[in-house]
Amino acid sequence: MLVVAVLGAGVLVASAALAAAGHRTQTVRADGAADAAATSAAATAIGLLAGQPCDVAERVADTNGAVLVGCDLAAATARVRVVVGSGPFAVGASAVAGPADDQPEHGVYGVPVGHRSPMSRTTRARSCPGPTSTIDQGDTCQARRSS
Fold first, then answer.
1. Could you give phi then psi for residue 77, rounded to 5 degrees?
2. pLDDT tens, 4-54?
């Protein structure tokens, strides 16, 4: 009886691991298909490819094994949504592609950052002072520097 219980638990764990691996694979496929579809739609919008942007995005998504379920174009920026798989195992992904000028401002805690940031580059990149106590060995500074 104990052997059957151990074997049953092993099969259950292996099945769960295989299901998680399959889901991760579908997620990666969906992300790649969404990125490719958005990039092709944006390239079509600015004239690098021939055709209508959403038609090209649909063709690229289909080639990557995905179904295009949404395509929006604002100026030269394309937003697409794709689905890979069907039923309860379907995985969706979305992507945005376009020229860098059309991208909205990015902010961290309400402070704009990026190439349009009002904060000077030297202020954003200044080094942190050394540890202020024996407990703080620079971890806080490292966390600020990496984020």
1. -100, 125
2. 999 999 999 998 888 887 788 888 999 999 999 999 999 999 888 889 999
Helix axes 53-63, 2-45, angle to 10 degrees: 150
Could you give the dihedral angle defined by the CA atoms of residues 53, 59, 60 and 66, in that order, rounded to the nearest 10 degrees?
A: 120
Distance of CA 79 to the CA centre of its chain: 13
State the residue for tokens 């691996």.
21
pTM of model > 0.70: no
Q: What pLDDT score does 114 carry? A: 59
CB 27 within 8 A of CB 91: yes
The pLDDT of residue 110: 58
The H-assigned helical ranges of 46-146 are: 53-63, 121-124, 139-146
Closest CA to 40 of 70, 91, 92, 80: 80
Instruction: Specify whether the CB–CB gap between 80 and 67 falls below 8 A.
Output: no
